[in-house]
Automatic annotation (TrEMBL):
Name under which the protein is recorded: HAD family hydrolase
Highest classification ranks of the organism: Bacteria, Bacillati, Actinomycetota, Actinomycetes, Kitasatosporales
Keywords recorded for this protein, A-Z: Hydrolase
Known EC number: 3.-.-.-
Gene Ontology MF term list: hydrolase activity
Lineage top rank: taxon: Bacteria
Keyword 4Fe-4S among record annotations: no
Pfam families documented for this protein: HAD_2
Protein's UniProt keywords contain Hydrolase: yes
Length: 229
């Protein structure tokens, strides 16, 4: 990869389903949380909603005519169920290696996630690349989560990089839309379970199988083009 920019570049990463293999755990836990509250929501529908902040996910799946007084109960049930997996989370293939390689090449890596506290700590333990992570932009730091552009803009502020010098990597259509709206080039990964065509339609400039596949193709990817610009 040839360095062409005199200013730093930023590698922005979603976490769940992008760096850590958690999407289907979230699906199962949300499905059970909805069931406990008396709602029948298909796992397919839940999967398509993964990546939204909790309150937006509940609204997306249950609609505006739901009993909103139970939203916190549903989110709390999901959190409790998901928490039982905290010590068993596994990174996706090549996740830590990809972050370390980007750091070695001078990229500032920022995680863009709705996770916080002990959940974020468990995710970072799974990735095992703390020295390569420059910061975290949480949904708690902004008024609107993905697919709004605010989380990505917050990450750019943390990295002190403009949108033209950044790449966002994620696994959901919400990730692609958030990055696009912030003016950042989005890269899609298939390891979260969302189809290639859906990621492309949502704005992905390229799509790779998983972090290991992206790592193997860094020198011919959008990362190389951004670095040269």
């Amino acid at each position: 990869m040839t360095a062409g920019r005199d200013v730093p570049c930023a590698a922005l990463f979603d976490v769940d389903g992008t760096l850590v293999d958690t999407n289907h755990l979230h699906v199962t836990c949300w499905w059970e949380a909805f069931r406990q509250a008396g709602h029948r929501v298909s796992t397919h529908a839940v999967h398509r909603a993964i990546g939204l902040p909790s309150e937006d996910l509940v609204a997306h799946l249950l609609g505006e005519d739901r009993d909103k007084g139970r939203d916190e109960e549903i989110s709390a049930a999901h959190k409790a169920l998901y928490g039982t997996y905290a010590d068993r989370l596994a990174p996706l293939d090549g996740a830590g290696d990809l972050l370390n390689e980007l750091a070695d090449r001078g990229w500032r890596t920022i995680l863009v996630t709705s996770a916080g506290g002990s959940e974020l700590a468990a995710l970072k333990r799974a990735i095992d690349a703390d020295d390569a992570i420059a910061g975290t932009a949480s949904a708690d730091d902004v008024a609107d989560g993905k697919p709004a552009p605010e989380p990505v803009r917050r990450a750019l502020d943390l990295a002190e990089v403009d949108a033209g010098g950044a790449v966002f990597v994620g696994d959901s259509v919400w990730d692609m839309q958030s990055a696009t709206r912030a003016g950042v080039r989005p890269v899609g990964l298939l390891c979260g379970g969302i189809p290639h065509a859906d990621l492309r339609e949502a704005g992905a400039v390229e799509v790779h199988r998983d972090p290991a596949d992206l790592l193997a193709r860094l020198d011919t990817s959008v990362f190389d083009r951004v670095r040269r610009d």
